[in-house]
Design a protein that fits this description.
The complex is a heterodimer of chains A (135) and B (494).
Chain A (H helix, E strand, L loop, with lengths): L1 H6 L1 H19 L3 H23 L20 H31 L4 H9 L18
Helix pairs in contact in A: 2-3, 3-4
Chain B lengths: L6 H19 L2 H29 L2 E4 L10 E4 L1 H28 L5 H20 L3 H20 L5 H31 L4 H8 L6 H18 L8 H7 L2 H27 L1 H6 L3 H21 L4 H22 L2 H32 L10 H4 L1 H15 L5 H15 L3 H26 L15 H19 L4 H14 L3
Antiparallel strand pairs in B: 1-2
Helix pairs in contact in B: 1-2, 1-4, 2-3, 2-4, 3-4, 3-10, 3-14, 3-19, 4-5, 4-10, 5-6, 5-10, 6-8, 6-9, 7-10, 8-10, 9-10, 9-13, 10-13, 10-14, 12-13, 12-18, 13-14, 13-17, 13-18, 14-16, 14-17, 14-19, 14-20, 16-18, 16-19, 17-18, 17-19
The chains are: A mainly alpha (135), B mainly alpha (494).
């Protein structure tokens, strides 16, 4: 049992990170904390790709004498792409939170929902971006 | 150099290149011209590809001349050709409408960014439909998702921001599930090419990582396609987005996700692995039925027309998934035909609602009282699309529901026929709420002088309403292509 755990240590780390991230996304009401959780969740997947790409004693894939065992570079390249996607998602998420803060004056989810349900007057954001909002 | 040989690359490159160019041009007129031309060119390319596939079978295109399975392959078969035509066609209709629509709904200095995001979204959706590479599919999915979050956040109402944020969280969780699924498949097979993966998986379909991959992909894609109960992001996103965006996303985004699901189920895992060894038929049947009834019932109690028809979209996704759950050629024909028919109907409906928004200043049921008198054409169009959602003979919705019923009878599940008809009655109820407000109430005093929608909004909207009627009468394009694609997915014939 313990040997099994140690052999697959990287997968256990991945599962732990993924669950921790997903839990934060679900359990926290703060919009920034949700994004932090989302970041951890996305990052855990990088581990799933990168860890099996490394072989102990493996070299870069060079076709020549003396190079027999090599590590597959493709997963790392894939994850480079996924990291870029993750950065873009996080940036966009943070930008949205800034705009939500401007429009609602709060970044707590329940507070925001309460403000939308309280008055029956249709809230409008003035002329679109960034305007001050009178509830 | 032969241009015709590079059509599959052009399909994605045209809108993808138009996006940064639109940002550089900055002028809203210039950005509009550029993106519209790119979308029309992409539509022309997709028609050419569709004709080519029908004449001579699937097209395989090696990006950068790296032969598959090492390089990224673009693969156009009868299913992806139909999807490409649908996505690019809807974009080609919505863009001229968007010019007149965002003039009223968005500040002028963000117009060029709107067009850039629209082009990116189109590139992403077309990319999902055309690519034959699993990781490439994820990247295109994220391109389309990130741009659609921005498009939704552009909405006038401040709730659009929260809707976009919620969609971002849900969409990213879905996309990450898809990456996990693709990663597990890659670890097992050592390939990312979908066709190659399908061949190599045949010997190991009962291995545990493969089953885990199937589960991750199912949940991830179901989030993106808003399968009940993973639909929570959809109603707000559609309700508060700018009208042109609601129409475009409602018509294409979830449909392309259905395509991704079909591709993974039937081309990668194979239908025996998914449906014969696992209880997926029952699972999808239950979720589809729950979506059809719960979402339709919720739609009846909405006060905002955009939200009402957004919930109706969740219900219609139920019909689409119901077709998949039959795991038969007739069922898949119904699924793929309903994909197209519902896209056209719902696209037209949301375009008309945008015209209502422009005329009456809002789309709550209380505000559209008497719209049958002040905007008779628009109201009539909405009723026609509503009939299409119900599935009245002579509209596109009838054709696909007919095939659904045929598929149910083929399986001997006559009780399902009653359920399909019963859920259509719920659709009658929510469409009736509009009819009652539009024709049996006097318009509000301050709105009695509202004029009919301008041509810039009316013509694109009526193009799609016309298509709804056309596909209800002439089914050679929709059902013909759908039947070919269904046979290809199940039988391996091209």
């Amino acid at each position: 049992m313990l040997a099994h755990f140690v052999d697959h240590f990287d997968y256990w780390a991945m599962i732990f990170l993924a669950m921790a991230g997903l839990f934060i996304v679900i359990a926290r009401g703060n919009l920034i904390k949700k994004l932090v959780g989302l970041g951890i969740f996305q990052t855990s997947v990088y581990l799933l790709y990168v860890a099996p790409g490394k072989i102990v004693g493996g070299t870069a894939p060079i076709v020549a004498e003396g190079f027999r065992v090599y590590s597959n570079p493709l997963p790392h390249v894939l994850i480079l792409t996924a990291i870029v996607v993750g950065v873009a998602t996080l940036a966009l998420g943070l930008a949205l939170v800034v705009r939500i803060r401007e429009a609602y004056d709060s970044i707590e989810e329940d507070e925001i929902l309460r403000r939308d349900h309280a008055p029956e007057v249709t809230p409008s954001r003035g002329e679109g971006a960034g305007g001050k909002v009178v509830p | 150099m032969n241009l015709a040989a590079h059509l599959p690359a052009l399909q994605v490159v045209l809108p993808l290149a138009a996006a940064p160019l639109a940002v550089l041009l900055r002028g809203r007129g210039a950005a509009f011209m550029l993106v519209t031309l790119a979308a029309w060119a992409a539509f022309a390319v997709s028609i050419l590809l569709w004709l080519q596939v029908n004449a001579s079978g699937p097209i395989s295109y090696a990006i950068g001349s790296w032969a598959p399975p090492w390089g990224i392959e673009y693969r156009v078969d009868s299913l992806s050709a139909l999807l490409l035509m649908l996505v690019c066609g809807i974009a080609a209709v919505v863009l001229p409408y968007a010019r007149a629509s965002i003039e009223r709904e968005l500040r002028q200095d963000v117009h060029y960014l709107f067009y850039a995001m629209f082009a990116l979204c189109l590139a992403g959706l077309a990319g999902i439909a055309i690519t034959g590479d699993a990781f490439n599919l994820f990247v295109f999915l994220e391109i389309s998702s990130l741009s659609s979050y921005v498009l939704i956040a552009l909405g006038r109402d401040r709730r659009a921001l929260v809707a976009a944020y919620q969609y971002l969280i849900m969409g990213t969780i879905g996309a990450t599930f898809i990456v996990v699924g693709v990663g597990l498949l890659y670890l097992k097979t050592g390939t990312l090419n979908l066709a190659d993966m399908g061949v190599r998986l045949q010997e190991m379909t009962s291995h545990r990582p493969v089953l885990a991959a199937l589960a991750f992909l199912t949940v991830g894609i179901s989030l993106k396609l808003a399968l009940f109960p993973l639909h929570q992001w959809l109603p707000n996103a559609y309700a508060y987005a700018p009208s042109a965006v609601s129409a475009f996303l409602a018509a294409t985004a979830t449909k392309v996700s259905v395509y991704a699901l079909l591709r993974f189920y039937f081309s990668v895992f194979g239908e025996t692995a998914v449906f014969k060894r696992l209880p997926m038929e029952d699972l999808m049947l239950i979720l589809a039925l729950a979506g059809m009834f719960v979402a339709s019932a919720v739609a009846i109690f909405q006060h905002d027309l955009k939200r009402l028809f957004a919930y109706s979209s969740v219900a219609q996704i139920g019909y689409i998934v119901l077709g998949i759950s039959f795991d038969s050629v007739t069922g898949l024909t119904a699924t793929i035909a309903h994909l197209v028919n519902h896209a056209v109907t719902k696209g037209g409906l949301f375009l008309l609602l945008g015209a209502v928004m422009a005329g009456m200043g809002g789309v709550t049921l209380a505000r559209v009282h008497g719209i049958g008198r002040v905007m008779p054409l628009t109201a009539f169009g909405i009723v026609l699309c509503g009939l299409g959602l119900i599935g009245v003979p002579g509209t596109a919705g009838f054709v696909s529901k007919w095939y659904l019923i045929l598929a149910a009878l083929e399986k001997g599940q006559w009780w399902l026929v009653f359920l399909i008809v019963a859920s259509s009655l719920l659709a009658v109820a929510y469409v009736w709420r509009f009819v009652e407000a539009a024709y049996f109430h006097a318009p509000r005093a301050d709105l009695a002088t509202v004029r009919e929608a301008p041509a810039g909004l009316a013509i694109p909207a009526w193009t799609l309403v016309g298509a709804t009627i056309w596909f209800g009468l002439d089914t050679s394009v929709t059902v013909g292509s759908a039947a070919r694609a269904a046979a290809m997915l199940l039988g391996g014939a091209p």
